[in-house]
Amino acid sequence: MTTPPRPSGVFFFSEEFLAKLMTVGDVADYLSVPKSWVYDNWKRQTIPFRKVGQSLRCRPADLEKWLDRQK
User: Fold this and answer.
1) Are 50 and 58 spatial neighbours (Cβ–Cβ below 8 Å)?
2) CA-CA distance, 63 to 49, in Å (whole number)?
3) Residue 10 pLDDT
4) Strands 50-52 and 55-57
5) SS (H, E, C) the chain
6) ∠ at Cα 21 (42, 34), nearest 5°?
7) pLDDT tens digits, one per residue of 46-64
8) CA 55, CA 32: separation in Å to the nearest integer?
9) Is 49 exposed, middle or buried (0-12, 13-18, 19+ CB in 10 A)?
């Protein structure tokens, strides 16, 4: 299976990545911020995490939508 060419400067998530839920550490790495910042913003109900058992998980697409809404 070949991947279609991508426009320059545009990032696309692969289907494999989209199927994976992001951990707090993944989100912190992606945003280049400390985990404590991610936890603080989740507690204020801003980052779209869901509880999965005892863990917080975030869909990459939801994180992208959240980022688009930030000023």
Assistant:
1) yes
2) 9
3) 58
4) antiparallel
5) CCCCCCCCCCCCCCHHHHHCCECHHHHHHHHCCCHHHHHHHHHCCCCCCEEECCEEEECHHHHHHHHHHCC
6) 45
7) 899 988 888 899 999 899 9
8) 21
9) buried
**Residue whose pair of structure tokens reads 């863990």 in the numeric block:** 55
Read off the pTM: 0.70
One-letter amino acid of 42: W
Residue type, 13: F
- Give Rg (Cα) of the chain: 14
| Inter-residue contact 18 to 60 (CB < 8 Å) | yes
